[in-house]
Design a protein that fits this description.
alpha+beta; FAD/NAD(P)-binding domain; D-Amino Acid Oxidase, Chain A, domain 2; 8-stranded mixed β-sheet; 7-stranded mixed β-sheet; 16 helices; 27% helix; 23% strand
């Protein structure tokens, strides 16, 4: 197998140097909370002339973040005690919530009030557009004197001579043609160095992944488990929108089988808009697993389909979600760096929530960084304070209560529900003190065992992948090296075709990978990519690498 690449940058190029004190890679809630809290701490302690820089691969902050989330306000209220009066963007307070188990032939069983599973109760929570949240937080950060650069994807990590201390990152070159030659528009990436680098790339970040490989940050931990979430924002009939505004419904069962983990939701985010989503675990055994097709099947259920009549899709998106919980979280710190948010696994998958945990992780990291910089020591030993603060926080307490949640479902829905019931009365322990885990790519069975069948698509409520990708606004410069790399193409044609039927053409929710009839080589439509990273996780041979494309490439969720 060819050596794994960590960057598409041209080698041996002279690059500009930009030294800063703290560099944050990614501009989601965790990163922005970290930057804002750190700036306040510097000011409160009289630490002057420290530069905090946030860079993000999206051209504009929020472009890669789709609307339609239910947020526990605990995190934002801690960061901004007057968050409502400060104009924090709220779509609606949750007015009503419940869960329903969908039956394959139609109909459902509703669970409301005391019968609603406790992890799905949302009293006191708020529906938000995460796109708007990131924009609002970035404005607050810039007003505080923090520098934020959009369109600056981080392509590789800079290490010292020992190979263990992080010194910063190199941003992605632009103006490189598909054949690797430099176009007339070529601009080399920049070396950004920092005393502390905060990795906040979201799920399955390419830098964080390679950092883990190099430094063994997941040694002794459960392998991370992942789910792929598919989401559409719909403009619906006003009568339906008004009825659903402020309501949250989670659904389970259909179209999943009992040995698969997943769920779905409908959020009434405006008087004429619904957010619909479907999440499926990537340890699903079927080689033809297609998260997008499952989403379409779910929308065709008689409980969901009537909600969409007379409506239209406004936006489409997909992302992976770290589901492994506390025992799957990597080491949070090292020499010259910390990890926050989804990058570090700060998600309570039982509740399907992570915004409040992401914000808290950023704040805890900021406290450790401030203390380290104040004493002039940003070593691993000094930044360990971040982990100590986490272990003493409400974030740890929450994640500890669901520490075995996802792993219990690996043995099927019945075992998972039984274990969770026991966990509720044992402080999160469940039937086993610490459940082991598995890497998702190891669970796939040969394609000969597949039973998955595609639904019928249409132009109304059951859009195919390519039509949905159009609604993501995904755009990439065509004449650039593909940011989706096949490490060993021979595996695809010689082994994967026979064993698994080339599952990349199924599990990718953006039709990036195609196998035209009779073709022995995969066709990669990199311009379709919505940056979900499913391929990087689910490929049974770990043969696909997702790397950052040129700055500004990817989905554009401009108004949602």
């Amino acid at each position: 197998m060819q050596p794994r690449l960590t960057s598409l940058n041209a080698p041996n190029i002279e690059r500009e140097e930009l030294p800063v004190d703290v560099l944050l890679v990614g501009a989601g809630p965790a990163s922005l909370a970290c930057a804002i809290h750190l700036q306040r701490l510097f000011e409160s302690k009289g630490i002057e002339e420290k530069t905090i820089l946030v860079i993000d691969k999206a051209e504009e902050i929020g472009n890669h973040t789709l609307s339609g989330a239910v947020m526990d306000p605990k995190g934002i209220a801690e960061l901004f005690p007057n968050w409502k009066d400060d104009g924090f963007p709220i779509l609606s307070e949750v007015r009503e919530d419940w869960a329903e188990m969908l039956k394959p032939g139609g109909g459902s069983r509703a669970m409301k009030g005391a019968f609603c599973p406790p992890q799905l109760r949302n009293h006191g929570n708020y529906m938000v557009s995460l796109n708007q949240v990131c924009r609002w937080m970035s404005e607050k950060a810039e007003a505080a004197g923090i520098e934020i650069y959009g369109g600056f994807p981080a392509a590789e990590t800079i290490f010292d001579d020992s190979g263990k201390r992080v010194l910063g990152v190199v941003t992605r070159d632009s103006g490189i043609a598909k054949d690797g030659s430099q176009k007339g528009t070529f601009e080399p990436g920049m070396n950004i160095t920092a005393d502390v680098t905060v990795f906040a790339e979201g799920t399955r970040g390419s830098l964080a992944k390679n950092l883990d490989r190099k430094l063994g940050l997941s040694k002794g931990k459960n392998p991370q488990s992942w789910g792929t979430g598919i989401k559409e924002i719909w403009q619906v009939d006003p009568a339906i929108g008004k009825e659903w505004f402020g309501k949250v419904m989670h659904t389970g069962a259909y179209p999943l089988k009992r040995d698969a983990y997943g769920g779905s939701f409908v959020y009434g985010i405006a008087e004429d808009k619904l957010a619909l989503g479907f999440v499926v675990g990537l340890d699903h055994k079927d080689a033809k697993l297609d998260p997008h097709a499952l989403f379409v099947q779910w929308k065709q259920h008689p409980r969901i389909r009537p909600l969409l009549e007379g409506g239209k899709v406004l936006r489409y998106g997909a992302k992976t979600i770290p589901e492994g919980g506390y025992f799957s979280m990597p080491k949070l710190y090292g020499d010259g760096f910390v990890q926050v948010g989804d990058t570090a696994g700060f998600v309570d998958i039982a509740k399907l929530k992570g915004i409040h945990l992401a914000i808290k992780s950023g704040m805890l990291a900021a406290e450790a960084i401030c203390a380290a910089i104040e004493k002039g020591d940003t070593s691993e030993a000094s930044l360990k304070k971040y982990d100590d603060l986490f272990e003493a926080s409400w974030a740890k307490e929450e994640l500890w209560k669901t520490r075995n949640y996802r792993q219990a479902f690996a043995k099927g829905m019945f075992t998972g529900m039984l274990d969770f019931g026991v966990a509720m009365v044992t402080g999160g322990r469940g039937l086993v003190g610490k459940r082991g885990g598995h890497a998702d790519h190891t669970t796939m069975e040969p394609v000969s065992k597949s039973t998955f069948e595609l639904p019928q698509f249409n132009d109304n409520d059951s859009l195919d992948k390519l039509t949905d990708v159009y609604h993501s606004g995904a755009i990439h410069e065509e004449d650039q090296p593909a940011h989706l790399l096949i490490n060993d193409p021979s595996i695809c044609g010689e082994k994967c075709t026979k064993e698994y039927g080339n599952p990349c053409q199924h599990f990718c929710p953006a039709a990036v990978y195609e196998w035209p009839g009779g073709n022995s080589e995969v066709v990669i439509n990199a311009s379709n990519c919505v940056h979900c990273k499913t391929c990087d996780i689910a490929d049974p041979y770990e043969n696909i690498e997702w790397l950052v494309p040129e700055g500004g490439g990817g989905p554009k969720y401009l108004d949602m």
